[in-house]
Design goal:
Elements (H helix, E strand, L loop, with lengths): L6 H10 L4 H25 L3 H64 L5 H62 L1
Helix pairs in contact: 1-2, 3-4
Length: 180
């Protein structure tokens, strides 16, 4: 161990101040022991450069794995959402076509029986309007639910990405602080 002060000069200084040679040497010896003990305690808490590099490599590989997992998750979620959205669009088109066909059929029937059943036709029209309104409301509700779900998934992905970036930055700053 290197000492960062001259022990002989300290002994001489203590002797000048009135200590005997033996007292001065005992004081300096005690100071050296205290410093060595403190340095031993400090060295126990320190990390070697090799250990630090190994830990850094482990963290970087873990970050890379998390990054890959996030990309896979993001792609799978988006493709699942897209396919689900396409299915719902097809169902909506079928429902719309069915409603249109039904309206056409009802109109044709109504034209044939117009003179005989005016009151019945009015009632049918009212029922059809209610059914159409309910169908439109259902369609609007489904579309709004889909939009909400898409926004929710978008926000979740952004949160995960931001959390990962902040975690990486925190780890990097931690290593930077340890490094310095």
């Amino acid at each position: 161990r290197r000492l960062y002060f001259d022990t002989h000069a300290l002994v001489c200084l203590l002797e000048e101040k009135g200590f005997t040679t033996q007292q001065s040497e005992v004081i300096v010896s005690a100071l050296v022991k205290i410093m060595n003990t403190n340095l031993d305690m400090i060295y126990k808490d320190m990390v070697t450069k090799v250990q630090q590099e190994i830990a850094l490599q482990q963290v970087m590989s873990h970050i890379a794995g998390v990054k890959k997992d996030m990309i896979i998750l993001e792609k799978s979620e988006f493709s699942a959402l897209r396919s689900e959205n396409e299915k719902i669009k097809l169902e909506l088109q079928q429902i719309k076509k069915q409603v249109t066909d039904e309206i056409t059929k009802v109109r044709a029937d109504n034209k044939l029986n117009l003179n005989l059943e005016k009151s019945r036709v009015k009632e049918l029209h009212a029922q059809q309007d209610r059914a159409l309104t309910q169908t439109d409301r259902k369609i609007d509700t489904e579309v709004a639910d889909l939009k909400t779900m898409l926004e929710s998934h978008k926000l979740d992905n952004i949160k995960y990405l931001a959390g990962s970036v902040f975690t990486c930055l925190t780890v990097a700053l931690g290593f930077y602080r340890l490094w310095i």
